[in-house]
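Hey all, sorry for the wall of text incoming. These are the three entities for the joint prediction.
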Amino acid sequence: MSEPNEHAHHIVGPGVYVAILFALLIGTALTVWASFIDLGPWNPIIALAIATSKATLVVLFFMGVKYSSKLTKLTVFAGIFTFMILISLTLADYISRAWGSW
Amino acid sequence: MSTNAIISLPDQSTARIPKDNFITRENGLLSWLLTGDHKRIAILYLISITFFFFIGGALAGLIRLELLTPQTDLMATDTYNKVFTMHGIIMIFFFLVPSVPATLGNFFIPMMIGAKDLALPKINLLSWYLYMAGGILAVYTMASGGVDTGWTFTTPLSTHYVNTNVLTTGLAVFVAGFSSILTGLNFIVTIHKMRAPGMTWFRLPLFIWAHYAASILMVLATPVVAIAIVLVALERTFGIGVFDPIKGGDPLLFQHLFWFYSHPAVYIMILPGMGVISEVISTFSRKRIFGYTAVAFSSVAIAVFGFFVWAHHMFIMGISNYAVLVFSLLTMLVAVPSAIKIFNWTFTLYKGSITFETPMIYAFGFLGLFTIGGMTGVFLGASGTDIHLTETYFIVAHFHFVMVGGMLMAFLSGIHFWWPKITGRMYPEKISQFAAVVTFIGFNLTFFPQFILGVLGMPRRYASYPPEFQVLNVFSTAGATILGVGYLLPVLYLIWSLKYGAIAGNNPWQATGLEWQTQSPPLTENFAVMPIMDHEAYDYEWLEQQQQAHKESEATHAG
Amino acid sequence: MPDNPVTSQGASGAAKHAGSADNADILHAGHPPYLRHHFNSTEQQADTANFAMWLFLLTEVMFFGGLFTAYLIYRNWYYPAFVAGSHQLNVVWGTTNTFVLILSSFTMAMGVWCAETRRRKGLVLCLTLTFILGLCFLGIKTIEYREKIEMHHVPGFHYSLQSFLDPASNPEVFKEYHDQPLALDMARHTEIYFSLYFLMTGMHALHMIIGIGILAFMIFRARSGAYTAGHVTFVENFGLYWHFVDIVWIYLFALLYLISRHQ
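and here's what came out:
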């Protein structure tokens, strides 16, 4: 139709899926292992970093965004962006609420 | 500047409404209730929205009647609380949010982009049923005791202190929210995937751009209010503590989540109205909208900036002073794209061949009233003045100027503009021009005094007030009466016109949109032949050439 | 769910309009039965359904987004309470459930592949495995919830502060973490932790239950070959939904179980 048809529907094969499955399983094992070590402030950072990499793998391969149109990529980005606005601007209020009242 | 310069109706003695159209294609109540046709769903919406508008309007009438005198004489104070709460809930969630998108948007988005239907017809029907379920639940709640939290469900009032029907009202809003999400989702998908050949993004009518921007807000913001309402319901029923200061919860968190939706919701309400105004102003000044690209992008800019400003509803609620500063600055940003629109519409008028048909009169009303509403919004966005003016009648006047003066004017403008296309018949011109002027006068008389009342310090949401405010309140109530007449008139003459109106023909306004290039009322599949867009939007020369060619071909046929 | 273009309806819709629109015959000539009348091609229809599903997931992101925001705010405010609350969760069950859900995501992805390559038996097998793994997840979640009920850690229902005022009263947890007793004021805030725990995992479980219901429907239809005749949109879109639910859990697991194991 009006937009050039980028579909051409890329079918991702089982090989990729198996590879991603193992990456996800290893990631899970890694994050659980890391949580047993006391890394101070780095514990949450590492846990969230691993979670984000796992989520990225799922989005890119299981959900096929890597092979999708720019529109789909933009949609995913819009979701993350709006969520970030919600979190960051709300937290901005909470973090700065006590400033100046000491 | 003669009044009837552009109306071109077919010869009334020979003209007929086309036998096959979306209204006559199928008969019976079920064919309407189970339809997938976007035009029929739009009409279902139009009827139900009008119904809820008049319920909300009746409640507004009660409010103004109570405020005629300083004492609480018409109703008890807690009844008054319930009345203004239900007025807000019904008007916002069941009239303003779906008004233009679900009726005019539903009807004309597919037609303007040259599609046969919205991308997801069943989802479209589902969204109407959800809307009706929510609406009926809201009316039931009102009948069975009402709710008195204000339309904002403010915590901890709604969670701990009132024993009215917060849960059922919350459910009603929740369900209506999903209706709105589905409508928005459907529009975005349709605009992306269903455009006719040649209909590139920058050939789209500005009505489409405005709806696209509003739909983004519906899809992204509405779920947040849904979760906020779920949390209120759980707090109320199980005491989960998230909004309970005793357990360490923060009632302000509710405000954050609520306004994260409800501020963008203001743009959900106003953007589609702006889309209508673009179409009307172009048509009745016979010019392409000045700065088409700027107006198109300003819609998207309003949608994006709309996400960054919500906390300006919370300046006096105890949020961080630094957050106040930041949100106050960010709020000023929204004024820029809104002003771009106003200026560009005004430049479009410059040296245009302006005629004053009813839609145009409403559009002029919109321009003036929305400008006042928008400018006073800047006062309220500036934290210093906001602290003085918020929770007074100034804020009431401000949002009624934007919502009623802006959106409702735009809605009526659009209804008159497309009435010939929807029904195939013209509305009576003289009386409708009269109604438009009555609405404008009534509106100003109702809400302008409220600005003064607010500056003088009259707080909102009280049934009584000090006697020195009475004069202005009497003005306001008198204005509301006139406004009521202004809204009743269109209902009467539009219904009258269904049977007695002049046959409109395909394109009574000589407008350029694709929706005008097909029969009125349209076929179920909109176009007999799939249209191909080979010109820019608002190209009046293209239209003239088309008509010239049409006349010539008729002449040869006759010869 | 976006449109479920049930074959018969698409066909009857097309048939209904074929006679009336003069070019309808040309437009509909030789199209597969699942092509709905208002689309011009199957690619357009599939693209549209796919995009609609992504937009639906966008609303889901924002729906869960509100809860995540609440969690982050309260964790910053009441850090000790959230740490103590988190210690009451069973990491072994949480990890097991993560593995279960990742496996189910994999089987679902394989299911989509089977549908795309028209392997009917493979599709039925993959969907059934996903169905079973989904049930496993819910079963484990039920065990965890029961532990919480027994410990009186359900907010609003006889919520007990004992585990936080006197951590040694729960030797299993104490052995592992050696928590200091919390002050009464902070101990009260553990209720917010558990509210958010139940809200987030509950909302996630609700999505799982809906997903499992749809899976049952899909297995039923897949057995008769409904998706392996070329029209795979529904399976693909459900796959997107299932993976999204998986992603939510990946974050819930990190936020609720893992990040507060050390003070």
